[in-house]
Request: fold
Amino acid sequence: MQNEKFKPFYLFFITYMTQMGIVFFSLPNIIANHFGYNGWIMIIPISVVVLIHIGLIATIYSFNKGESIFQTIESLNSKAKMILMPLYISLSIFWSILSVTIAKHYVHVMKFLYFPQTDIQWFVLLTLILTFYLVTRGIITIAHISTIFFFLSAPIIFLFLYFVPDFSFLQFSTFLFNENKDFYGGIIELYTAFLGFEVILFMFPYISKEKSGFKYVFWGHLYTSFVYFIVTIICYGFNSIQQLTRVVYPIVNLVKYIEFDFIERLDSIIFILFYLKVLITITMYVWISLITLKRVVKWSDNLIVFLLLGVGYLSTLAFVTKKELIFLLSALTKVQLLISVFLPLLLLIITFKKRRSND
Amino acid sequence: MYINKNLSENIKGRLDDCDDLVTRTFPELEIEVLFFGHLVGEEELKNNIVQPFSNINSDEVKNILRRKEFKQEEDINSMVSGILEGKALVIFKNSLAYVVDIYVPKTRSVSAAEIETVIVGPKEAFIEDVGTNLSMIRRRIKSDRLKVLSYKIGTLTQTKMYLLYIEGITSSVLVKELQERINDIDIKGINDLNQLIQYLDRKPLSIFPQYFTTERPDVSTSKLLEGRVICLLDGSPYSLSTPTSFFEFFQSPDDYNQRWLLGTLSRALRFAALVITLFASAFYVAVSMFQYEIIPVKLLHEFIKSRSNVPFNPLIEALIIESIIELLREAGARLPSKIGQTIGIVGGIVIGTAAVEAGFTSNILIIVVSISAISSFVVPHIIMTASLRIARFIFIILASIAGFFGIIFGFIILLIHLCSLKNMGEYYLKPIAPLSLKDIKDTIIRAPYQFFKK
Reply:
């Protein structure tokens, strides 16, 4: 399916759906814990920094004219591929572990909230089956599916209108960042909430070349920021800061408040609908690990994905409790943060070097 | 095979033991006529054969045989197949053979559509004779760009098949691809277009129909104008069109014949029916097994009361009622329409009320299952309804395993399957995947005609 390409507007959906993950439910809590009063303001500067970060990726895209990043790296030296092979393998294993951890974390929260008696391994396996099925359909189907999932889950945002009558500006207070505990740690935490846009790096050869196609990545990111922003502001206006610091999943609590004549306690439906977004995040990471490993081995997609998911599953088998999972996930996302910062920088250096030698 | 001597004996030898072969001789003219009496029209026989050869002398025979309806034939195989196709074989002096087409199909006359009924619009439907069906389409598209390719399907049945497309609108790649698939079919015989579809199928394991069939010539015509290929098969009152999209099965000619707002709203209603028929029963099972908390307190009281007498778990309960509905539907389909109504009364009223009173099921479940059964019949195309029914049972079972998570799991599998399905190189879920806002105005909604570009 190397020849098939998708229209750039799918980048909007892929960016948004990959960025948005389980962190959405705990975001106000993270912000309140780290930044204290009026912490929601921090979303804006962090979002701008991420925007610059995406700008870096866009620069690489326009300089290399849609060439695959693997080609860019390997063009440096004819023997580069041999040296890079261990790196490719370790990156691909890292991403498969990361994606299984994300899956496990979501599933754990779901079990904790709605299926207290079920073993999480079952849900993890079901999720991996879905991931396997989706990844092996190819990137075009993934792009299509993320568009459909977007339209199925996007209307949830309108539910937050329900809170407008009970919204109170009194909760905001006039303090700024008082009672903050770990400001710099908070910045990193918040930054990782936006992670997911870096998968676009691997999609260059699959984007059909059209003018200013990359703007959809920016729009996707801005939409994510918008959703984070709205939801956090509503949480801040609805809860006191003390409540926010104590409730781990403030959004779930918020949704529990919604009550209609014909349906009560929408939270289970909403939370499980969120599975669609989490699945796309997992799928994207498995997909990039698939195409990375494909540079090294010439096996069929089915086999590679099966092996990757197997490795991911087995290596996270020992992590079961919430504390362990959160520890693992935060460690992995920090590594991913480093990758997403240094990979574009490296690519940019290579690109400039190439351009200079060409001139 | 060219045989010029003793032709009559040879032909009769080939058609040995075919007692329905009629032989008519004009001894003084040395003419022998062979045909199957039940394939030819009496009037045609009289006008083309009997009258010309009566009351003439042998010199004039040659003049008659020079008429344009007499086609000289030299290959014995074509002579035999000509007779089998309803032509009359005229043998002159036991050495020269001519075929005359006097075939008149004996089928019913054109009548109103029975399955795809409409409120506003043309009523006529295809019949079993392919020539009549073709004439219905030719009558609607009077253009030389409408091309018709003829095929014979089945080594024994030699069933006539036509492939229709409009030059300049339909892509030639598509026509070529379908031609290849038709040429690949290697069977003894075929009875109906719906069987042919299964031979053309490249995804036989999917539960969804891969080709769109209709019994309405007006729908077939509009498919042609949209750039699709149409197939007609002799003996089948249907036409198939391809490439097919999922949303085609939710369109009815009524949408186009009524005003656009009404058309759009009735489409919205059908999509709502799609959601209800897929998820209503599964939702009931999920709620009553896992997520009681979503029921409002006022309703919860009634809900528990209605379930309190039921000895089974919700899965068994739902499966029992769903199976009863399936039995009723199947019985209704097989019975003559007059008795069919009785089935409705017996099933709907007697079994429904009795099942609740006997404590077999809860009232609420009866309502849920009935609504989902009614919704399944809102979908205008029967073949899609059948697919959705299978999916519904899968959803019920998944809901009993993991509640809403099970439903979402099944739903995602279904979506991925639909997204990756392709029919003749086109995506099945078009225009949703790939997303094309331009095409949505004639699939999900029905925009006013002024919005369509020519």
Observations:
- The mean pLDDT of chain A is 89.
- The two ends of chain A are 35 Å apart (CA to CA).
- Residues 74 and 80 of chain A are 5 Å apart (CA to CA).
